[in-house]
Amino acid sequence: MSVSEEIPGAREARAICATRSNDPSMLLEILHDLQVRVGHIPGESVPILADCLNLSKAEVYGVVSFYHDFRTEPGAPITVRICQAEACRSMGAEALTERLLSRYGVSLSEISAAGVTFEPVYCLGNCALAPAAMVDGALIGRADGAAVDAAIAEAGR
Amino acid sequence: MSLVLFVPDDAAAVSVGADRVAAALAVAAEERGLDLRLVRNGSRGMLWLEPLVEWDGPDGRMAFGPVAPDEAGSLLDAISSGTGHPRALGPTEEIDYLKNQERLTFARVGVIDPLSVRDFEAHGGLEGLKTALTMTEEAICEAVLQSGLRGRGGAGFPAGIKWHTVREQAQAEKYICCNADEGDSGTFADRMLMEGDPFTLLEGMVIAGFATGARQGIVYIRSEYPHAISKMTRAIEALEEAGWLGGNIRGSGKDFRVSIRRGAGAYICGEESSMLNSIEGRRGTVRSKPPIPAIHGLFGKPTVVNNVLTLATVPVVLAKGAEFYKDFGMGRSRGTQAFQLAGNIRRGGLVEKAFGVTIRELIETFGGGTATGRPFRTAQLGGPLGAYVSEEMLDLPMDYEALAEHKAMLGHGGITVFDETVDMAEMARFAFEFCEEESCGKCTPCRIGAVRGRETVEKILRGENVARNIALIEDLCELMTDGSLCAMGGLTPMPVLSAILLFPEDFDRASALAAE
């Protein structure tokens, strides 16, 4: 085993790049896959991705930092995304967000003791059933405290 | 004989329990020894009735909704015994909301099994593509041009002109890029189409390929749409298997392949040149134009960039002819638009109508007014970069030019309704905040202007030098409009200025504070 293989995410990064033929245009897909496998994009994986894809470290880092989806630290076990865009605001998304944050005792993007984090999102495409939230990929329409709690409980199982 | 029920697996329907209803129906059918065939269709677009269950009975499709999981047993009993049910809505197609629409692009959405090629073909699918196979490249482009079809992504550029331009480029490699980065709040038609009738979009892309000489298509779908990504992925496989996608399509000697790229949560990637950078694996920053993508697009090659609904409308244009399509609409807005009723609205959902329908008809006749029952205050048309309209403007027709004359924008056809509790100064602040959050950062008017704009509205909210700060915002908006590279910075002034113009009382914070 070479030294680089001990770096977090190194093996996964190389393997994923290989399945995408080390094609630099596939960088976003590769980052998505890496985040699914490792949970985040470890900073140490950036030079490895750059090496595999024949890009500069700056180019890879630039992409990782540009897109909201990619995180460089491990995320919470359960992520609740609450839509903050206009359609959801018209149905009280701000008040819902405030209530949830105060009940779970966290601010946005902070991880609660129970491992839940709330993230803002701008539009989940469920604007006729506002407000909308997404708990670990499960979309909730007409979201209220009870529906979000139930989805969090479900996701925790 | 088996009992055939339709339960949508559209993300919106699932968000209010469609999966639980489907599971409950399966259990209840088993308990009753019924041979149930459950079809997971797209949504009919009457989203306030979701989960909407349909029974394919002797008199056609009968609707029930909204159905709760614990009503599954009583629903099956009512159907088996021919008695009534409190959720019964009668024949689906007779429901006013649906009956009064003109569905061309969405003709099959909610009707068919989205992943059955046979079902698709039985309902008129592939007819446009079969017609295209008999036509020259130039004739296809010309039909699209003659139909008057304009880009449904919001800008409204004639699709036929774009296609002709790409066709005329001599390069061997060309691309068809479908923009499915539907990030505007108040819009969900692209998502519904991809989930409810994905083959239609693919059919449109193949036709675009045949029309321009491109052999490669890419659908760029935002990561916030996992259901659509999964549905489109399976649709590509199914259409390849059926021989309508891939190499030597149906023995024609023509190839066309489609792949999917996921976005990564950047609103700006809905702007076409940002999207192209993103597909190339780069930061989604805007490119300067010219050159236009039709000449210098993806990987520097000639590229058609069209919205989901533009491409998904092409099959009906070719199947029924340019004249048929052109007959719908008004002025230079030809055909139909998939209007989306969103936000604080009683009957939210999708209404496909010919251009020319008034805002009032959509909000009141179809939408039934606000969801809260409080008086209507405003609606934002065309997403976060669109203008707010006042009550007095509701009789304007939905038409690109008529709205532009009144400093409003049709955009993607989204209508987000607000009741009287909305604070328009707060919405103006939010418009700048959103721009600040989502700006790609390439040009200064957008990157810095958004921050300064938000700060200045915050001063107004605190009642500081209101008149001077409003003048400052108007000046800033002029600069952003004139100096931004793309619509993000260029159109953020639309919601801001319309709020100031139509609802000045909400900005009069100084006197409000003094009165306290």
Automatic annotation (TrEMBL), chain A:
Superkingdom as given in the UniProt entry: Bacteria
Binding locations of [2Fe-2S] cluster: C83, C88, C123, C127
Keywords, comma-separated and alphabetical: 2Fe-2S, Iron, Iron-sulfur, Metal-binding
InterPro entries, alphabetized: NADP_DH_HndA-like, NuoE-like, NuoE_N, Thioredoxin-like_sf
Pfam families found in the cross-reference section: 2Fe-2S_thioredx
Record note on cofactor: Binds 1 [2Fe-2S] cluster.
Gene3D superfamilies according to UniProt: Glutaredoxin, NADH-quinone oxidoreductase subunit E
GO molecular function: 2 iron, 2 sulfur cluster binding; metal ion binding; oxidoreductase activity
Cofactor field: [2Fe-2S] cluster
Sequence similarity: Belongs to the complex I 24 kDa subunit family.
Protein name in UniProt: NAD(P)H-dependent oxidoreductase subunit E
Higher taxonomy: Bacteria, Pseudomonadati, Pseudomonadota, Alphaproteobacteria, Rhodospirillales
Automatic annotation (TrEMBL), chain B:
Domain NADH-ubiquinone oxidoreductase 51kDa subunit iron-sulphur binding, first and last residues per copy: 425-470
UniProt keyword 4Fe-4S present: yes
Keywords attached to this entry: 4Fe-4S, Iron, Iron-sulfur, Metal-binding
Membership in a protein family: Belongs to the complex I 51 kDa subunit family.
Record protein name field: Formate dehydrogenase
Lineage: Bacteria, Pseudomonadati, Pseudomonadota, Alphaproteobacteria, Rhodospirillales
CC cofactor: [4Fe-4S] cluster; FMN
Matches recorded under Pfam families: Complex1_51K, NADH_4Fe-4S
PANTHER family for this protein: NADH-QUINONE OXIDOREDUCTASE SUBUNIT F (PTHR43578:SF3)
Keyword Transmembrane helix: no
Residues that span the membrane, as ranges: none
